[in-house]
Amino acid sequence: ETGVTQSPTHLIKTRGQQVTLRCSSQSGHNTVSWYQQALGQGPQFIFQYYREEENGRGNFPPRFSGLQFPNYSSELNVNALELDDSALYLCASSSKTGVTEAFFGQGTRLTVV
Amino acid sequence: RKEVEQDPGPFNVPEGATVAFNCTYSNSASQSFFWYRQDCRKEPKLLMSVYSSGNEDGRFTAQLNRASQYISLLIRDSKLSDSATYLCVVNKGGTSYGKLTFGQGTILTVHP
Known about the structure:
Number of strands of chain A: 11
Largest interface: A-B, 27 and 22 residues
Radius of gyration of chain B: 14 Å
Order of helices and strands of chain A: EEEEEEEEEEE
Structural class of chain A: mainly beta
Structural class of chain B: mainly beta
Order of helices and strands of chain B: EEEEEEEEEEE
Number of helices of chain A: 0
Strand content of chain B: over 45%
Shape of chain B: globular
Radius of gyration of chain A: 13 Å
Helix content of chain A: under 10%
Shape of chain A: globular
Distance between the termini of chain B: 37 Å
Oligomer: heterodimer
């Protein structure tokens, strides 16, 4: 087990709705990155949070937003859901001090209907 | 052109076979390189980091050629349990640390 937990594990939403996904990082890790993985594709970087600040963003529209809390847990919010947002959403925690691997949570599978 | 490109396969090999995966990356500023393994409907897990000098972990050997911007993974004596998707991953490093760029993955199926 990586110590990175995500909730919920599965979610079904209707187009146009909003969704919040949650991630608890591994103990000692202050950086959380979010990825979207569509079926048959590799994960794509959405954004990263370091010490409660956004620290870089991939090619995703502003309706994808996030937060990081003082305990380094994080949320991913998606507004105005589209059918193409259906994917596995992964969070990864890592430490900025030294070169360490990124540990992934089990993911949240979002289906937009 | 994608930043990280892999042959998606699928690769179908018998137990005991040797199989090689290749990957190319486009950003010469990339500093860290990895192979991740992803089982069906699970999260990616680090298989091994890749170094310029090449590195080996049991049946797995990874190589990096910075001049050609090419990464490889060799699996010897394949086991049924090696069946998975193998993801080539690149990190630009510096302030980009932790922002991983993934290839689309290569599917491997090892059969009896």
